[in-house]
């Protein structure tokens, strides 16, 4: 079979000599075999080149992404260091403030509980957004809050350091016009029918009577209380705190600075009272005091 020959005849388009090429079938098979091998090799080279090219493109993209992430991490590190120094500064301000006032931090249990909740929220956000996006969001929030916190601390320091005479922040006079219905000591609770400690006094008054600050102070708390409804708590510094329960129409917020005579709220009837009345407490170094000691009875003669 392989002894046969195949003749190829080449006829030019124009007049010319006809060319004939004779090749054996064996040689044709060999040439075809090597041709197929060469084609397969070339196909593999092209495929390998395209694969390498694709991997190089992915590598370049990954490299660019990595460099971007490295840049962001570097920025986060710089901002974190700046934020850490800022909070160190705030902590030093807080220590100074603690020496001038009786502001206290949250209890350890509350802090731990809050940190655990915050960690769970951050993990959930990291799953949805990505860790770097969560870090960027948290740092942005810190950047926004830290200026407000620093301004507030400086404001508090100026307030407490500004009045060197402690008598200027000593509560004096009646916070509202009225008369005492429940005295300091022990009280018979009309709701529960039991005796309970009375750490302050109850002052009955008329509806819409304004509540005035008895001395310069910082509003340590302004909001809802489980027992006293709306509750105000003022920190006058030097360990003196005053509390005001059963109030309405609050006009000050937590962190506000108030001066003696500023209107804080109004007195209205509440579901916990039988008529318009104010619950008034004075606390000195965490020990309840009889508010009558700080009231001038002559101020009731208006």
Please describe what this structure looks like.
The structure is a single chain. The chain has 302 residues and is α+β, with helices and mostly antiparallel strands. The protein has helices spanning 25-100, 108-129, 131-162, and strands spanning 5-10, 19-24, 179-182, 185-188, 195-198, 200-204, 209-212, 217-225, 229-237, 240-248, 257-258, 263-267, 277-284, 287-289. α1 packs parallel to α3 and α2 packs antiparallel against α3. The radius of gyration is 42 Å and the shape is rod-shaped. The model is unreliable at 102-112 and 298-302 (pLDDT under 50).
Task: Give the gist of this structure.
By secondary structure, the protein is α+β, with helices and mostly antiparallel strands. The protein has three helices and 14 strands.
The fraction of residues in strands falls at: 25-35%
Low-pLDDT ranges: 102-112, 298-302
Shape: rod-shaped
Structural class: alpha+beta
Secondary structure: elements and pairs:
Layout: E1 5-10, E2 19-24, H1 25-100, H2 108-129, H3 131-162, E3 179-182, E4 185-188, E5 195-198, E6 200-204, E7 209-212, E8 217-225, E9 229-237, E10 240-248, E11 257-258, E12 263-267, E13 277-284, E14 287-289
Helix pairs in contact: 1-3, 2-3
């Amino acid at each position: 079979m392989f002894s046969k020959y195949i003749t190829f005849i080449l006829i030019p388009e124009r007049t010319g000599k006809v060319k004939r090429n004779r090749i054996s079938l064996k040689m044709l098979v060999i040439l075809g075999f090597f041709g197929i091998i060469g084609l397969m090799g070339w196909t593999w080279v092209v495929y390998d080149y395209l694969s390498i090219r694709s991997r190089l493109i992915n590598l370049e993209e990954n490299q660019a992404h990595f460099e971007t992430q490295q840049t962001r991490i570097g920025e986060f590190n710089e901002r974190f260091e700046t934020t850490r120094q800022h909070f160190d500064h705030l902590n030093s301000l807080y220590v100074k403030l603690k020496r001038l006032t009786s502001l206290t931090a949250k209890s350890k249990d509350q802090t731990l509980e809050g940190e655990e909740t915050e960690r769970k929220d951050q993990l959930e956000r990291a799953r949805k957004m990505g860790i770097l996006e969560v870090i960027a969001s948290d740092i942005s929030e810190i950047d926004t809050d830290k200026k407000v916190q620093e301004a507030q601390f400086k404001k508090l320091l100026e307030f407490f350091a500004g009045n060197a005479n402690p008598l200027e922040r000593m509560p004096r006079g009646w916070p509202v016009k009225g008369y005492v219905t429940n005295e300091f000591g022990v009280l018979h609770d009309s709701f529960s029918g039991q005796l309970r400690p009375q750490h302050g006094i109850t002052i009955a008054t008329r509806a819409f009577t304004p509540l005035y600050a008895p001395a310069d102070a910082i509003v340590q708390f302004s909001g809802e209380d489980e027992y006293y409804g709306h509750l105000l708590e003022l920190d006058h510094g030097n360990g003196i705190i005053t509390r005001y329960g059963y109030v309405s129409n609050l006009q000050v917020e937590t962190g506000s600075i108030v001066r003696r005579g500023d209107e804080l709220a109004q007195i209205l009837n509440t579901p916990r009272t039988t008529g318009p009345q104010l619950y008034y407490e004075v606390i000195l170094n965490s020990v309840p005091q009889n508010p009558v000691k700080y009231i001038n009875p002559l101020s009731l003669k208006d």
